[in-house]
Design goal:
By secondary structure, this protein is an alpha/beta fold. Helices cover 41% and strands 13% of the residues. The chain contains 6 helices and 3 strands. The longest helix is centred in the last third of the chain and has 18 residues, at 76-93.
């Protein structure tokens, strides 16, 4: 009934973003959309992109992920590979959106 506005600054990733309780206050005058969730691994952000990224048509995506991947036993090379898949997935639909 009341979807968030499109073209916001989208934050995704794991609990480091979830627990950032002052996110909106730290970015005054910016429309912030927080779609992070605890336990998130990079592959989760890719898997759920159709639900947590694309409907919002963000103007920039900030992703904070990778720590849970390493903790789960993924090698740094696997984490980087998953990140490249994430970027390719985003670029396929939002080619010009910056990813930080």
């Amino acid at each position: 009934m009341n979807p968030p506005p499109k073209h916001a600054v989208l934050f995704i990733g794991s609990s480091g973003i979830v627990r950032w309780t002052t996110l909106a206050a730290d970015h005054p005058g910016t429309t912030i959309l927080n779609r992070a969730f605890g336990g998130n691994q990079i592959a989760d952000s890719t898997h759920f992109a159709d639900r947590m990224i694309f409907p919002y048509e963000p103007r920039i995506i900030f992703i904070r992920a990778g720590g849970n991947d390493l903790h789960a036993g993924h090698s740094p090379e696997e984490v980087f590979s998953d990140y490249k898949v994430f970027v390719a997935t985003v670029r396929a639909k939002l080619a010009e959106i910056p990813i930080a």
